[in-house]
Every structure is written in C-alpha cells, then in structure tokens.
DNA sequence: TTAGTTAGTTACTTTATGTAAGTAAGTATA
DNA sequence: TATACTTACTTACATAAAGTAACTAACTAA
C-alpha cells in the first residue's frame, strides 16, 4: 500500500538537508567563504565527513571550491547563488529555535 | 583549536531536523493528524525508525500522540503548537526546491 | 635533513538504519 | 474452539553511515 503523494523536489531537498552536518556547513558558509580547516573546527565535523559533504554540495551546485596556489595551498569554499538561496530557510530555523528551544 | 561560535539553540534545532526522516514526518503531519501506518506508507520510512522518531518528537514536544481505544486500536499523531511553528520553514524548503531542483 | 603547513585520504571501530519476522490486544469468521 | 485479521509496535540481525586517528602529497622554512 504505497501512497507517496509527497513532491519529489521537496523530498530531494529534504534528503540533502537532512544529511548529518550539511545544514551546519551551509549555515557556516553564510558568514562568507571559508577554508576547510575553519569549517572543520567551527562546525565540529570530522575531516572525513566534511570532505564527503563538500564534494556532494559541490556536485549539487550549492558550494563552490576555489584553489589559491599559495604556500601552503589555500582552498576556499563558498556558497553559490543556489546555496545562498537557502538563507531564508536558515533564518527560519534560527527563529524557531530561539522561540521554542531552550539551551 | 576549537572555535564553535554557532548558537547552541540553532545547533540543537539542526540536530533534530537533520535526523533522517524527521523533516518528512513533520511535513506529512502538516496535512493533519495521522495514524502510524499512514505516515509509514506516505513517507516511506520503516516502522522501526518511525517508532523511534515519533517517540523523540513527542519527547521534544513537537508531536502529540492520542489513543482511541477502538478496535483495532487507533492512534493519531499530530503536531503541537511547537510543531506547527515549523510550517514556514517547510514552506521555505518547498519554495527552494521548486526553484532550484529539477526532478 | 627534519619539521611544519593545508587539504585531504585510508583503515578501522562504533552507531544508525533497513529488513523481516514476531508480539499484544482485540474482533470476526469457520 | 481455532484460525485469521486488524493496528501499532518491538526484536534480531544485516548493511550503511559516521567517528577516530594515523597517514599522504606538495611545498617551505630552519
């Protein structure tokens, strides 16, 4: 008795955003372009998973990766237009959490 | 070098919403009160995980569980005020997905 | 030559999820 | 009386995802 009436786009979006750490990474990148180690320490995600998530987000066109061949190499991750479009959503989570959650 | 400057409330909210299936369950309950088997089939989550999630959501005060001692027993899950307050957020995901994702 | 940098990757362990069968409490059917 | 059928779960077991820590590449500086 399958009765999936849920919009497949919504389902895909939720599938992306409900991966562990993905939301936190995007939220952190809303501050501005950042390098790997900065995201790692501010978000508290392991390098193994961060590397995986950034690859996925890049493939989805949500995150941009820019290499600066300095020494040591600097790589900056930033949000694309598609990624920046998630800001209202993040603000809503912020609002909700401030009203309904206590620390 | 730990530099977690992220708001703990936001982090908790994201921790809740980024659990697999949680968002879909809430989205489905926005339609109205529903029983276990309806959520199970419409969302496509397994009974094992659905049971776990509904317990968590009830503990968080997001979902309400009401027992109707009919035969066979009917149990209806619905969103509390706190849960309903997540609607704008869900609408944002909907909007974003419709603009930025293709099926 | 040794040490130090960033941005990863690899191997291994622990946790989360999927799958399918089982349970409890009750009614209806043979 | 026995068997089957309902919902709402739970349990046991298998697989997938995430955590941890060590390792690598490419380059510079001491």
Can you walk through the features of this model?
The structure is a homodimer of 103-residue chains. With 103 residues, chain A is an alpha+beta fold. Chain A has one domain (8-100): Winged helix-like DNA-binding domain superfamily/Winged helix DNA-binding domain (Arc Repressor Mutant, subunit A, Orthogonal Bundle). Helices cover 56% and strands 14% of the residues of chain A. Chain A is built from six helices and three strands; from the N terminus they run ααβααββαα. The first copy, chain A, has a three-stranded antiparallel beta sheet. The longest helix of chain A is centred in the last third of the chain and has 14 residues, at 87-100. The radius of gyration of chain A is 16 Å and the shape is globular. The relative contact order of chain A is 0.14. The model of chain A has no long low-confidence stretch (mean pLDDT 94). The A-B interface holds A 1-14, 17-24, 27-28, 41-44, 82, 85-86, 88-89, 92-94, 96-103 and B 1-14, 17-24, 27-28, 41-44, 82, 85-86, 88-89, 92-94, 96-103. Chain B binds a DNA duplex (30 and 30 nucleotides) through helix 4.
Quick rundown:
2 copies of one chain form a homodimer. Chain A has helices spanning 8-17, 22-29, 36-44, 47-59, 81-84, 87-100, and strands at residues 34-35, 63-68, 74-79.
């Amino acid at each position: 008795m399958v009765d999936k009436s849920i919009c497949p786009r919504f389902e895909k979006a939720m599938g992306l955003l409900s991966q562990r750490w993905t939301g936190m990474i995007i939220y952190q990148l809303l501050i501005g372009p950042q390098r790997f180690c900065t995201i790692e320490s501010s978000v508290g995600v392991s390098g193994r998973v961060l590397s995986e998530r950034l690859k996925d987000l890049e493939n989805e066109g949500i995150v941009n990766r820019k290499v600066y061949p300095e020494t040591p190499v600097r790589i900056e991750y930033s949000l694309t237009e598609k990624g920046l479009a998630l800001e209202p959503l993040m603000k809503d989570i912020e609002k909700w959490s401030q009203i309904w959650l206590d620390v």
